[in-house]
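*** Protein under study ***
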Amino acid sequence: MHHDWISYARDELSNNRPIVLVTVAEVAGSAPRGAGACLAVGIDNVCGNIGGGNLEYSAIERSRQLMQTAGRQGFELEQVALGPSLGQCCGGNVTLAYEVLGGDDLLWLDGACAAEPGHLILSEFSASDGRRTILCGRAEARDLAVALGTDAAAADAAPCQLIRGASADRFILVRNAAEVLPLVVLFGAGHVGKALVHILAELPLRVLWIDTRPEMFASTSSSNVEQRASAIPESDVWQAPPGASYLVMTHDHGLDQEICAAVLKRGDFAFLGLIGSKTKRQRFMKEFRSRGLDSKVLDRLTCPIGVAGISGKRPESIAVAVAAQLLQVLEGRHATSAQTSDVDT
């Protein structure tokens, strides 16, 4: 899995069109995007985003100035106070890193497109030597951090870290080349499934879309979505990694029941949402209890699904409500994990 801006930058450079990569290198206080957000700026288009508004507008303008004035290995840092400089209500401060990319960057961009989680994009810059960017592992990043006279542990930071060297004109920018995206297993390619997969495809998720009827799948150009025709969908539950989320909305209540039973037996899911009424939930729960499934796990079955307050029954309305609820759950788990990791031991 790769970021869209990487493919965009590679394609533009392959056609001898200049690219400036803008990265949010540091954040202090409130800002539209966190460290690691990237924007690839081309001559007449952009890909990615660093938060929109005046910050992004001014970054695009500066990038296109650099296309005209900077050398092929150009690199620039810009400190931006969002309130005083741009009139944005966030009020925080960000450091933007601008990198003018050239043909020499195609090698690491090719690697980044196929990178697995754990690989890093590392840009080294000095006023005398210019810039070089490589795709590397964490051990190599630590070695370079030591060579620059910095804390080697900083190279393990994620998703982005600006590491300053012993001299003011030397530093490295370390970014994740690939991230582990949460997996959502969507069972059902009916009206709601089709509407929902279009929303999920635009989110930072991996989607495995399963149905017994291959002719029901809708076309999608998203690399985040994998379609799978399965004669026994409940068996696919056991192939998913721990921590996956499951959305169950097939054309058959009996099939829904067997899929949910498999997920509940595993117990290691982030979210299990079943489309249907309260009556459907009651019937399923009675059956699951008769099978001896753990009551604490059963309580984690969400049915009906979708955030409260959206009563529309159109597939598109249901899909929006379900996607919003899924994001609430996943972001809540991420926040809890971050808080836990911040506790001193």
